[in-house]
Design a protein that fits this description.
The complex is a heterodimer of chains A (about 300) and B (about 625).
Chain A lengths: L1 H31 L8 H15 L4 H22 L9 H22 L5 E2 L9 E4 L2 E4 H23 L1 H11 L1 H6 L4 H27 L1 E2 L5 H14 L4 H21 L2 H4 L2 H15 L14
Antiparallel strand pairs in A: 1-4, 2-3
Helix pairs in contact in A: 1-5, 1-6, 1-8, 1-9, 1-10, 2-3, 2-8, 3-8, 5-6, 6-8, 9-10, 10-12
Chain B lengths: L4 H58 L6 H16 L2 H7 L14 H25 L7 H20 L1 H4 L6 E2 L10 H19 L1 H11 L1 H6 L4 H27 L1 E2 L6 H14 L4 H24 L21 H16 L10 H9 L21 E10 L2 E11 L4 E5 L6 H8 L7 E6 L2 E2 L5 H7 L1 E3 L12 H15 L8 H7 L15 H13 L5 E5 L7 H18 L2 E5 L3 H7 L2 E6 L2 E6 L1 H6 L1 H13 L1
Helix pairs in contact in B: 1-7, 1-10, 1-11, 1-12, 1-14, 2-4, 2-5, 2-10, 4-5, 4-10, 7-8, 7-10, 8-10, 8-17, 11-12, 11-13, 12-13, 17-19, 19-20, 20-21
Chain lengths: ~300, ~625
């Protein structure tokens, strides 16, 4: 029982980061029908910014602000340079464009920094734990879960209570109709990328604090987690993305601690298999998004 | 299997041989200039070409983006390595392999076949998953499943050292003495080109392409896209496994990283730069990207000291660096997606071009077709159909009967449920209750492609042609379905039907280039080519002028007469409906409110109140 609770807390900590990434993927998918394989590159770019800031002697508090700012700016820049040029293209083109962005960004760091892993100091409290009854809880997980809850609440408020949120939800439901109703497609799409960058920025802070290193290919793993979580949750559904992220985090932690040692190293592979099975039995993901096509 | 032997077998094989000769010759010319470095580059490029051709078969014909083909390659590569490496060498790396794999010792050729068989089994399972995920052209979930496959194989390869030798050691053959010469590569490449071209021209390939162009329309013509996607996947994976085995054998070793992101990127870029919908394009892409990458590598190494041109490269130092080739690949992919997403050649094929050039004299239009007498045995019956969308009752207890010797019209104001009724009959919308049957066959729960195969073929209100196929290819799709699923009907003559529809002059134009009226005629001809028992027409005159509508009456009668089909037609245009129909059902608010001959309907006060009245006032 204690072990299960321990797993739950660890899993929620991990899943929170995935949820933030998945939500960013889902927001962009909603307005552009673009599955953003380049989402992980926001972490790569902010990771190198962190490496630079740490080298220049910045404190982590300042760096946190830098990471979020860099992530939002990168997200907007990528939209401007690449995605704005393929708006309305077919799904095949959109998928490969985002995959191309992913490669160009990592290749640029390969070219101008180096292929080797750069490390930077992690904040001291990341590895601290405290006792909660019979459980040992990481301070880090507590912070992650807390910040994620606040972020999700703020995002919900933004989407439910502001004009921008209304426009974004309308565009996600039916982009063409929303445009005809006077929603400005440019600003909604840019807003979606900014929001996606902001959520990824918060996720990067935690991802980088825990990793303490960065390399050109560091974006692959978070990209994969975010995309899979968004898909597991049901593409296009924001609630689904969050649920998908949490489910993915919990599944990883539970499998890692429960699988026999001989296959524990295959946890990632097992998770992928489970996701494939989920698709076979529930192709639309956890939350169903109805999408009617008129014939 | 192939609609036209000369066009679909003879020319593709000849074209494949020419392509193969061009590829091999340009490779030999290059390596004669650059010695042993060039020789190895060309060897690798030839193997890449096999893998890219394999990917083209699936990605090009189905339109589903797959990142997983290199994952299949990894499976094939490891199965090949484990089978073909001698027990002595395996004792060094994987002495404790399970299932007695360490002692397995087979000839390389047999090992290729084992690898192929094992990979096909995995492909079958993955394919079933893709089918369940609702795979269609551009489907996002299908693509992510293939991406997950790539990662699963990589994770397993890294973390199962007992069989794979792990991440660092890997598996290797005895040093020296693996692949002697290129004969095996040449044979495999030629076979890959021929298979890829023949598949694209075959019935299966054409139906897969139809589903790529418009999944829903393909189903409505009787194509089951999932079967065609599976066939394409298996053929494609078979080619990739052979390429992957050759790659391992040529290199003499295999590591998890060999078949992962880098190779995926390289092969995908080759495919999309050349043109994913074309075999010639795939080969051109391999050549262009191999050359570009090599140039980028040399520039990165030597600055401008390349090909004997000694310019001062110092000012451009910031760009000519190591790893330039990775940037080159990423930028190529992005650039092509933004400016030329269909690649250099789009869907141009060498043999098709040659066939068009060498077509014996001018084709003369075929003689007009005889009218087929409909046999009036099987009538279409829909009874007690109820459909609700959420809280909205779209249809309530609707029933219609149509026989094959008549034209039955369904009229009613907007929102009356006309199209919904047609969608229920053709299986696109599920009814809550009711029964649909054609003769003795119950079609109530049948999927739309089965309904089409039983003889109910429809057109669409908003035109759903296969846009990048030619007029003739559009018609051929339904002909191919009819030829195998409606054997008791005499197959119609594709050319004759095209001529009768007044499309002969347009036969080699792409459907997307046609004007609106011509597109409508093509959709009608395509439906007729399926040799249906009934043609179901959804607003065939929408968007047409009055005179065009009147011409449409003749057109519909003629097409139905040529294939002996009954007609059920929905329309707003009263002149058209009254001019063409023998009997009319009038729908309002999801119920049949009147039924009779055109004269009876025109005189019916209920109909006038619900429908005609509103237009008569204006």
């Amino acid at each position: 029982m204690t072990e299960l609770l321990q797993n739950l807390i660890d899993g929620l900590g991990r899943g929170s980061i995935y949820a933030l990434l998945a939500l960013g993927v889902a927001v962009v998918f909603g307005v552009m029908h673009l599955l953003n394989f380049a989402h992980g590159e926001l972490i790569t770019v902010s990771g190198y910014a962190t490496f630079w800031a740490m080298g220049a002697g910045w404190s982590w508090y300042l760096t946190v602000a830098l990471i979020v700012a860099v992530s939002v700016a990168t997200s907007l820049a990528i939209e401007r340079v690449a995605f704005s040029r393929v708006r309305g293209a077919d799904d095949f083109t959109l998928l490969l464009t985002s995959f191309g962005v992913h490669f160009v960004v990592s290749a640029i760091f390969l070219l101008y920094v180096s292929a080797s892993v750069k490390t930077f100091p992690r904040p001291g409290w990341v590895t601290n734990t405290y006792a909660l009854g019979s459980l040992r809880v990481e301070v880090f997980d507590t912070v992650v879960i807390g910040v994620t809850v606040v972020t999700l609440l703020a995002t919900t408020l933004l989407l439910q209570r502001t004009m921008f949120g209304l426009a974004l939800r309308a565009a996600a439901a039916d982009f063409d109709t929303a445009r005809l109703m006077g929603v400005r497609s440019d600003s909604v799409i840019r807003g979606a990328f900014a929001l996606s960058g902001l959520l990824a920025g918060i996720a990067s802070v935690f991802w980088l604090m825990r990793a303490g290193s960065i390399s050109p290919s560091a974006g692959i793993n978070p990209m994969l987690k975010g995309v899979l979580a968004a898909l597991v949750g049901g593409l296009g559904s924001l609630r689904g993305a969050v649920l998908g992220g949490l489910a993915l985090g919990l599944a990883e932690v539970l499998l890692r601690s429960r699988l026999p040692d001989s296959v524990a190293s295959l946890t990632e592979g097992v998770v992928f298999l489970l996701i494939a099975l989920l698709f076979i039995f529930r192709p639309q993901g956890i939350v169903t998004v109805t999408h009617a096509e008129r014939v | 299997m192939f609609p036209d032997l000369r066009r679909d077998v003879v020319f593709p094989i000849a074209g494949s041989v020419i392509l193969f000769t061009l590829v091999v010759a340009s490779g030999l010319v290059y390596q004669s200039q650059f010695g042993s470095v060039g020789e190895r580059l060309i060897t690798i490029a030839l193997i890449d070409a096999i893998i890219v051709l394999g990917m083209q078969v699936f990605i090009g014909n189905t339109g589903i983006l797959s990142f997983g083909h290199i994952g299949f390659g990894a499976i094939a590569g490891y199965v090949f390595a484990v089978s073909a490496i001698s027990p002595v060498e395996k004792m060094k790396r994987i002495p404790d392999a399970p299932f007695g794999l360490t002692d397995v010792n087979v000839a390389p050729l047999l090992a290729v076949l084992i690898a192929l068989a094992a990979t096909l089994v995995v492909a079958l399972v993955v394919g079933l998953g893709l089918a369940r995920s609702g795979a269609e052209s551009g489907a996002v979930s299908a693509t992510v499943i293939t991406l997950a496959l790539l990662f699963v194989t990589h994770e397993v390869a890294r973390n199962w050292p007992a069989v794979t030798g792990g991440e660092r050691a890997g598996l290797s053959f005895r040093i020296g003495g693996t692949l002697n010469g290129r004969v095996a590569i040449y044979v495999a490449l030629l076979l890959a080109i021929v298979v890829a071209r023949l598949y694209a021209q075959s019935r299966g390939g054409r139906l897969a392409v139809a589903a790529r162009e418009d999944d829903l329309a393909a189903r409505a013509m009787g194509v089951n896209p999932l079967v065609q996607q599976m066939v394409a996947l298996l053929i494609s994976v078979a080619i990739v496994s052979v390429g992957a085995s050759l790659r391992v054998y040529e290199k003499g070793s295999i590591l998890p990283g060999d078949f992962f992101f880098n190779l995926t990127l390289v092969t995908l870029v080759m495919l999309i730069v050349g043109g994913r919908r074309s075999v010639s394009g795939a080969l051109l892409g391999v050549a262009v990207i191999t050359a570009g990458r090599e140039l980028a590598r040399r520039l990165g190494q030597d600055g401008f000291e390349v090909f004997g041109v000694g310019l001062d490269g110092a000012p451009l130092d910031w760009i000519f660096r190591e790893n330039l080739k990775t940037v080159f690949l990423g930028v190529s992919m992005l650039g092509f997606m933004i400016w030329r997403p269909s690649g250099l050649l789009d869907d141009w094929e060498l043999d098709e071009w040659l066939h068009a050039k060498f077509r014996r004299s001018r084709e003369s239009p075929p003689a007009s077709l005889p009218v087929v007498e409909p046999d009036d045995s099987a009538s279409l019956v829909a009874s007690g159909v109820d459909v609700a969308f959420g809280g909205f009752q779209a249809l309530t207890g609707v029933g219609i009967v149509a026989t094959r010797s008549e034209v039955v019209g369904i009229i009613g104001p907007n929102g009356a449920g006309k199209t919904t009724l047609l969608n229920v009959i053709t299986g696109l919308v599920e009814s809550d209750s009711g029964r649909i049957s054609l003769g003795d066959t119950d079609l109530t729960t049948a999927p739309s492609f089965k309904i089409a195969r039983s003889g109910l073929v429809r057109t669409f209100q908003n035109l759903r042609l296969f846009p990048s196929l030619t007029v003739r290819e559009n018609v051929e799709v339904s002909y191919l379905v009819a030829a195998s699923h409606r054997r008791h009907r005499s197959p119609c003559d594709v050319d004759g039907l095209i001529a009768a529809a007044g499309l002969w002059a347009h036969r080699d134009r792409r459907a997307r280039e046609l004007d609106y009226g011509t597109s409508r005629r093509l959709e009608l001809a395509r439906a007729a080519a399926a040799a249906p028992a009934f043609l179901l027409l959804d607003e065939p005159t929408s968007g047409m002028s009055d005179s065009e509508s009147l011409q449409m009456i003749e057109q519909v009668r003629q097409m139905a007469g040529l294939v002996g089909a009954g007609v059920v037609v929905i329309d707003h245009d009263l002149n058209f409906i009254i001019g063409i129909c023998d009997r009319i059902y009038c729908l309002d608010c999801g119920q049949v409110i009147a039924h009779g001959t055109p004269e009876e309907i025109q005189a019916d006060p209920v109909v006038q109140a619900a429908y005609i009245g509103s237009t008569a006032e204006g």
